Amino acid sequence: MKISRYVLSIATFTLAVYGLITSNFEFNHIMIFLLGLTMLVMGIEEYKKERKTIGTLLVGVFIFLLFVSIEGFLLN
């Protein structure tokens, strides 16, 4: 789980920096999707640590980001 969280975080950060440097925001929906997956992994980790409130919040953020990224995919 830790490795997947780090890989997803680095991929999200890379796309965010790319968008900021080049002012090319066509990959924003992919970045938001990767951010959502990162939140899902973090939520699962919190559930395993018996922190259900924070885990539920992170999974809720994942669901919201999933809808936002799907909207981005459909509009492009």
TrEMBL record:
The chain crosses the membrane at residues 29-47, 54-75. The keyword Transmembrane helix applies. It comes from the Bacteria. Keywords: Membrane, Transmembrane, Transmembrane helix. InterPro entries: DUF3953 (IPR025018). This is DUF3953 domain-containing protein.
